[in-house]
Fold this protein.
Amino acid sequence: MEPLWWIGMITMIVGEIANFVAYAFAPAVLVTPLGALSIIVSAVLAQIILKEKLHPLGILGCVLCIAGSVVIVVHAPQEHPISSVKEIWYMATQKAFLLYVGSAIVLVFILVFYFAPQCGHLNALVFTGICSLMGSLTVMSVKALGTSLKLTVEGKNQLIYPETWVFMLVVVVCVVTQMNYLNKVSSCCSS
């Protein structure tokens, strides 16, 4: 392997760990849009290092990503401090949230079992949709798990509650699913 590849892989892993930690200390409504700015950094680095051409539509996408991130961060609501995983669990079991989670899971299953076999290899939007829907669940579960771990480190052990372990399981399932379909998007686009 090339040293540049290893440097990229190591910095990406460190960045993802930092992103995970950020969810424990900052509101998800701030961390997520700022994390989306990595797309712009990737586009700029691809143009500089790989000599790829950034097309006008790509430039428009970058501008919209920056504008959207700024609007979200500027108008983000205040988040109240959370004192236990039980409080997070209470919020996660509200009807509106459960309706969202159920809808996202149903859409993922439809995409995975109906659209992916039929046209996933021809249309990257199928795999991208799966990644995006699972990503929304990943963000929320990472926020819950990160907050639980932060509280544990602060001396309020949250590992004794089964809810913490449920959030950990959800994080693992969501991340593995996302990585699987992100790889399929990459292979779909490269062929």
